[in-house]
Amino acid sequence: MKGTGSKNAWALFLFVLTGIVLGGFIGMLAEGVPALNWLSYGQAFGLEEPVVLNFGILVITFGLSIKITIASIIGVILAIIIYRFL
Q: What pTM was computed for the model?
């Protein structure tokens, strides 16, 4: 049973995911602007080459790459703040 003050975890997940996507998009747009270039600073990590499993009749490809930028971190923080006020 949920308490009266609890909120939906899926809504928070969607807000954070939206913050990551919008922050990443803003970071990509800010790359060409000299005054906002710092928003695109970040680190990428993950698999450089996808892992391929070939079972003859079934081929499965796994790959994951994540780029965290200053803009995406700001987007996550804003998404959490907005979620708390709703």
A: 0.75
